[in-house]
Amino acid sequence: MSLPRDQQAHSTVVVIGAGIIGLTCALQLQSELSRRKTTRPISVLLVAREWPSSIPGAPARHSTDYASMWAGAHVRPIPATTPQLRCEAAWLRRAVAEFARQVDVEPWCGVTRTPGVEYLEAPDQGYRQQTKDSFERETGLGGYRKLGAAEVPEGVVLAYEYDTFCINSPAYCEHLLRKFLLQGGKTLQRDLKSEWEAFTLREDVILVVNASGAGFGDPKSFPTRGQTVVSNLSHVTKTVTRQNKDGSWSFLIPRFLNGGTIVGGTKEPGDWRTEPDVPTRERLLSAGLTLEPYAHDGPARDAAETARNCKVIADVVGRRPTREGGVRLEVEERPLVRLDQEPAKGRVIHAYGAGGRGYEISWGVASEVVDLAMPLLAPEAQIKGKL
Ligand SMILES: Cc1cc2nc3c(=O)[nH]c(=O)nc-3n(C[C@H](O)[C@H](O)[C@H](O)COP(=O)(O)OP(=O)(O)OC[C@H]3O[C@@H](n4cnc5c(N)ncnc54)[C@H](O)[C@@H]3O)c2cc1C
Ligand SMILES: *[C@@H]1O[C@H](CO)[C@@H](O)[C@H](O)[C@H]1NC(C)=O
Ligand SMILES: *[C@@H]1O[C@H](CO)[C@@H](O)[C@H](O)[C@H]1NC(C)=O
User: Of all atoms in ligand 3, which is nearest to the CA of residue 234?
Assistant: First the structure.
């Protein structure tokens, strides 16, 4: 005879972090667990210091460390020329498939189909060798077309467009959180001192996922500062990125659902400054707004007119949780130190260090976390396989 549901032995998987990585991992774990038959219910508990809901310009403020609130964000593939980039390309493909599904079935979620344009002043080998075929195979995105010389601004030597996705980051994160809660997910606000502390949050924690972004003192982790401007431009219909010879970047990311347009942005590894600075804002706007006439079919005729039509809603600084070698994705097992109890092992799956690509690789990382998690849950929860 089985006990009523609320008296049954229960198990908990803790996910640390309510950024894009923690949210997608929590949802993916939740849906995989619900598809399987377990001898005891396993619930997913999301634990984080900071939570979604941020509107640039409104008073609620998040720390610069909560990268997911400050991302543009667009899907912008990078040619897969190294082992790390090949791995990220596979994750990106997985995320692209999920975004395509969401745009169709949950069109309010904060993801929008958008044309993407790339301008390169000094393309490396990877970009120069890229073809329509290799691009579409690597990314799962369609619509690739090289732009002709007459279509591109001065100084650009390689340019192409493709069909991609833009994400209203805070809105999308809120959407994922609402979905998690609706499906029975549990949450807890907490500033953890170590991932091992997570094992003490409930009696029955069997696994912890560390999606803490920058993590807890990994010497390979470092912040990459990003300053951007949230503007009220409303006629931008494409996301445009320009990589300049001097290593600087200029991009426009339309943020749908009344989010204005992001004019960016800096990439400053190891820079810990949390405040936006005015010279950077001026530089971003003057470079970004010259991209704009190419990016839309709206009423502005030139950059000067665009500048007159543009109001700064907020200056934004975020820290991309970067890690040498990319995302750490592995299981760590350690004895848990609990003085008055039987010795026990704790298992953590690490999933932090997504750097500047957290959104575009999210669902790929989450699938790998689930692949790592399921065999670990099997002995404890006696998963009997799919129903
Ligand atoms: C300006 C800018 C532009 C960007 N543009 C893009 C883009 O176009 N496309 C893209 O894919 N990515 C982009 N990114 C990168 C993207 O924002 C990050 O890769 C992503 O947000 C990382 O997500 P995360 O979940 O790993 O970490 P975070 O979003 O930092 O979340 C970490 C979570 O862990 C919690 N946490 C951390 N430590 C603790 C602790 N000790 N106890 C409890 N909780 C804790 C935090 O409170 C938070 O909930 C951009 C970033 C910036 C700054
Ligand atoms: C999470 O990852 C960080 C990497 O910075 C690591 O040092 C730490 O041990 C992990 N923390 C938790 C809570 O798992
Ligand atoms: C943005 O602000 C500028 C300057 O205040 C204004 O002229 C313009 O109409 C605004 N645009 C929109 C779409 O509201």
Answer: 13
Question: Is residue 333 pLDDT above 50, yes or no?
Answer: yes
Q: Which residues of 244-268 are buried (b: 16+ CB within 10 A; e: fewer)?
A: eeeeebbbbbbbbeebbbbbbbbbb
Res 65 pLDDT > 80: yes
pTM exceeding 0.90:
yes
- Which element (helix H / strand E) includes 320? strand 312-323
CA-to-CA distance for 146 and 161, rounded, in angstroms?
Answer: 7
What gap in Å lies between CA 192 and CA 261, rounded to an integer?
35
Q: Are 242 and 337 in contact (CB under 8 A)?
A: no
User: Can you tell me the distance from the alpha carbon of 205 to that of 208, in angstroms, rounded to the nearest whole number?
Assistant: 8
Ligand 1 atom closest to the Cα of residue 20 is 25
- Give which of 45, 320, 36, 69 is closest to 209, Cα–Cα: 45
**Helices 83-105 and 132-139, packing angle to 10 deg:** 70
Spell out which residues line ligand 1, taking CB within 6 angstroms: 16-22, 48-50, 65-68, 70-74, 190-192, 211-213, 226, 228, 264-265, 318, 320-321, 352, 354-360
Ramachandran angles phi, psi of 343, nearest 5°: -60, 140
Which residue lies with its CA nearest to atom 31 of ligand 1?
A: 19
